[in-house]
Design brief:
Length: about 110
């Protein structure tokens, strides 16, 4: 899952690896941040890189998994964004299809 879908979609680079906090988008390289946490509200059911400030705020939020799959992480093969419905469809190389609610990122 990508924090800035709209920008990535516009520049045609959806799916590129990003070195940023997965919650706020601040640039945080792997060497600069030892902070990792799951963040189910954004679709991260497994530990991902976050900045120190977000790490502290996520620890106060609910970390209860929202996925119904045993492993929510998958290699994305295809993405489709429906801005009207504010949903992102991802299809993994394992043929797993997921529909993501991206309404909080597409607010205008």
């Amino acid at each position: 899952f990508f924090w800035n879908v709209r920008m990535m979609w516009q520049v045609g680079k959806v799916g590129g690896r990003q070195h940023h906090c997965r919650k706020c988008g601040q640039v945080v390289c792997d060497k600069c941040s030892n902070y990792r946490t799951s963040y189910p509200a954004m679709g991260y059911e497994y530990p991902v890189r976050v900045c120190q400030e977000c790490y502290q705020s996520v620890q106060q939020e609910s970390l209860t998994p929202l996925a119904f799959l045993a492993d929510a992480k998958h290699s994305v093969h295809h993405l489709a964004l429906d801005e009207r419905r504010k949903q992102l469809l991802s299809v993994g190389k394992d043929s797993c299809i997921k529909i993501w609610d991206v309404s909080c990122m597409l607010q205008q």
